[in-house]
Amino acid sequence: MGMDSENNNLSRLQCSYASLDEAFEIGKETYRGQQYSHIYFARLHLMRTLLYSLVSQWKPQTPVCTVLGLEEGKECVIVGTLYKHMKLKPCILDEYSKERSAVPLAKPHNFMHDDDYLVLEDESGRVKLGGDLISPSVFVTGIVVALHGKETGAGDFSVLEVLEAGLPPQIEFPLKSREDKYIVLVSGLNVGNSNCNPLQFQLLIDHITGHLGDEKEQSIASQIVHVVIAGNSIDIPRGLTNGQNLASKDLSRIAEPIKELDILLNQIAAGLPLDIMPGPNDPANFSLPQQPLHRCLFPGSSAYNTFRSCTNPHSFELDNIRFLGTSGQNVDDLEKYSDAKDKLEFMERTLRWRHIAPTAPNTLGCYPYTDKDPFFIESCPHVYFVGNQDKYESRVIKGSEGQFVRLISVPKFSESGVAVVVNLRDLECHPLSFGTQFSS
Amino acid sequence: MASVSGSMKGFYRQKKNTTKSSKKAPANAKSDAPQLVSHADDDYSASEAMLRQFDMNMAYGPCAGMTRAARWERAQKLGLNPPQAIQTLLNSGKVQSESLWDGRI
């Protein structure tokens, strides 16, 4: 447990760390006016090669053909990118439509409609998908799948079965008997928001750094080896960022949240390694992959080598256990265009589709890569987390080749006061909640 | 307003096509200043023709918005085995580095 019995000094446990964010850093890419056809080509090619190898075991007798090579009535397997036609999806051209009232009003949080249909597309062509066995509410634009079925007289492809890529191969979970080591995941600090109670986060910092509680509690805190902040750490008042010239007193109001955050993070970084990821509201670029928050925003904390500013999505290894996480944009976008029983189900689907953000670039901002798709998941993580969600949820999913993944939905700390603690020994996790209300 | 004097034919001034021989191969057209400029008769060499075939080949993905060399590198990286001859041609530097759609779409 790291206790020095002679003079009762507790020392914090350590763990090895390796960052795997290189694929998400935009250093060598150049923008020369390219559009998104290239990233879709890279995605289709990568996944089709993979699916072809799986199809030969899935349907060994059925021929594989391209969309243009479909013959009516002949059973075959086709592989391509799904496109979901959605009636309610906002389209810029609707502004020019003369019959604006003809389109039903869309709910702002979900654009699904019973009339949505799926289309499969490859380089040769596209075909509308029919049949009851493929439900548009589960799928979104941008996923690459293999379909077994046949073309009907009407020109649709009637689907009999769908093959997804499935969970990617996973490196072995290090099983040697080990001590309890914990990683804390937190997101949605929203420092600077008028509803955010700074005392809650200060309590969390004090707990992690061992300034709270008696020896027993401090010894628990000494087992915390890493902290990851998954996005939306600051919340600059909206009225200040709408492009108007600011009075001098407002200028300092813009910088206040980030200065306050730096002071808070300084306390954590002084004690243990800290990763901070950008989120949708943070001062980072808009499209995925979001680049690390700049060091100049954290003059105090970035002096420590324990402070790491990371990309979103963020992939890293702690003691050979692989973590993958995002600040929530991928799952939030899936929620607008498809249906699932909970956020963890969306997360599970992204793993089974082997793609972190299939709706990028269709409805989720994304960099126009020309020769790769960095959101393709090559190696299955052991822990997959998504930040800025409404509540804490977690479960373990298993793959067909023995993979297992701990899925974690990390809630917004400023609203819930809940952070998540994961034990590296067995991937058990539990919420850590902080309340500052005094009961009357 | 056209002048009332003078025939209608004068109003629509016509120029006689003064090219000497009408049966010309397209390769010689540029020396005659034809009235209509036809893009189909752009003078391009055999190497450019080969590169255009490379641009149009669907197997290597979209060509618009990237240089031919970058597209060849991508095809190589994705394991599509693009012909080495194309890369040699591109490295020689005497050919157009952009795809045929560059500046047109």
UniProtKB/TrEMBL annotation, chain A:
InterPro entries: DNA_pol_a/d/e_bsu, DNA_pol_D_N, DNA_pol_delta/II_ssu, PolD2_C
Database matches in Pfam families: DNA_pol_D_N (PF18018), DNA_pol_E_B (PF04042)
Every DNA polymerase delta subunit OB-fold domain range: 35-161
Main location: nucleus
CDD domains, per database record: MPP_PolD2_C (cd07387)
Keyword field contains rRNA processing: no
Family of this protein: Belongs to the DNA polymerase delta/II small subunit family.
Source domain of life: Eukaryota
Domain DNA polymerase alpha/delta/epsilon subunit B: start-end pairs: 183-391
Protein name as catalogued: DNA polymerase delta subunit 2
Keywords linked to the UniProt accession: DNA replication, Nucleus
PANTHER family per UniProt: DNA POLYMERASE DELTA SUBUNIT 2 (PTHR10416)
Localization per Swiss-Prot or TrEMBL: Nucleus
Automatic annotation (TrEMBL), chain B:
Residue spans of biased composition, Low complexity class: 24-33
Signal peptide start-end: none
Compositional bias per record (Basic residues), positions renumbered to this chain: 12-23
InterPro entries in alphabetical order: DNA_pol_delta_4
UniProt-annotated stretches for the region Disordered: 1-41
Pfam families xref list: DNA_pol_delta_4 (PF04081)
Matches recorded under PANTHER family: DNA POLYMERASE DELTA SUBUNIT 4
Protein name: DNA polymerase delta subunit 4
Organism: Stylosanthes scabra
